[in-house]
Amino acid sequence: MPNLKILTSPDWEDYELLDSGDHLKLEKYGPYLFVRPEPQAVWQPTFEDIHWQSAHARFQPSREESGGSWKYIKPMNKSWEMRYKSLRFLAQTTAGRHFGVFPEQAAHWDWISERIKSAKRTIRVLNLFGYTGLASLAAAEAGANITHVDASKKAVAWARHNQSLSKLEDRPIRWIIEDALKFTQREARRQSLYDGLILDPPKFGRGPKGEVWEFFKFFPQLMQACHQVLAPNPLFIVITSYAVRASALTLYYLLHDITKSFGGNLEAGELALVERSQGRQISTAIFARWWDNSYTS
Ligand SMILES: C[S@@+](CC[C@H](N)C(=O)[O-])C[C@H]1O[C@@H](n2cnc3c(N)ncnc32)[C@H](O)[C@@H]1O
Question: CA-to-CA distance for 160 and 223, rounded, in angstroms?
Answer without folding.
Answer: 27
